[in-house]
Amino acid sequence: MHVMLLCNEMRLGGAERYTIDLANSLIERGVTVTMSYDGPVTHVPGPLPQVRRFEPGRSSQRGLGLRRLYVDREVGKRVARYVRDEKVDVINTVMLDTGIWAWLAGRLHHVPVFHTPMGVVPTLARLEKAMVSTRSGRGFIRAMRVWFIAISRYYGWELVNRTRIPESVIRYANLGTNLRAFQPRPANPELRAALGLSDGPVLGIIARLDAVKGHHKLMAAMPAIVRECPNAQWLLVGDGPQRTVLEAQAESLGVRDRCIFTGWRTDTSDLMALCDVYVQTTDGPNLGLSALQALAQGRALAVFAADPLEERMAADTVVEGVNGHTVPTGHPEQAGQTIGRLLADRERFERMGQASRRLAEEQYDWELHTARVLDIYAERLNGATVKAASASS
Question: What is the CATH code for 2-176+366-392?
Fold first, then answer.
């Protein structure tokens, strides 16, 4: 089997990390894999040496209008030639930029196409939102005969109820994380000291400092957290355009000394081990990779939700009162009180952390995810083979 995985670029991000990890896991199972993307790889670790690379060329136009179809037609031709010449059996996209050309190539060469959404509808880019939320976009999806892989219960619900994708073309494969690499273990005291952390309990977020990641939500709740847990600390792992804004917000709220900005780091598991409670603040809080890693490492979770829809998203990783809490985005005092009280009660957050690990083992094992994805590919390939044989007889 030759699988082609398409992502726009390999910048730091969840979709990019997922594409690399899936490519590597498929290679380890004897599958031939091509990764299609432009630009350098900024993730560590990157693709295995056996992973082939195809560069389709950057898109010169935004959207999917007639002008783009004309101007960027060479991109489509390159993708189609590669699919044909390299005998690609399965195409799997995670973004809808150059991924659109892969859909067209798959339709042209009768290659099964899958799309794995990596962002909930409210957070999608304009093109992606238009594709899944408009009548014309859904018509195009039907014409391309695209199948969808839902990586959580919420994603499946959203595909059916918000984008009107037929259930018949949706398959489920819960996203997972490496349960061996991310498992409960003691924090490294030398790393703790090097980062300037005291002996007090630690909140953690591992994400780029970007507005969509929502760090400002937790920052607004920090004064209330400190009132409930006077020795609370917050480890912000990552960097990005919002760092200066967040540092200024921390100063204005009088909590700058409680916030440790680490910048970019690759020792994610070591840093997660320093955290007592992991907080997910991102808009559209469904199955962030770092949240799954927190589950695997036995961390209690606190997830910010702005409305009932986000509460539904959060429910895939937080069982209220069992392994953490969902807290209201628009009420920083209430959110801070809930998080602060949890952080101040070691026995409670450790018990919740144990429940998180059990949840990860039951539902979010990366090995099970990869096996399920392969089963989905095989199901569609066998169906396509049967159909082709019937047509020729």
Answer: 3.40.50.2000
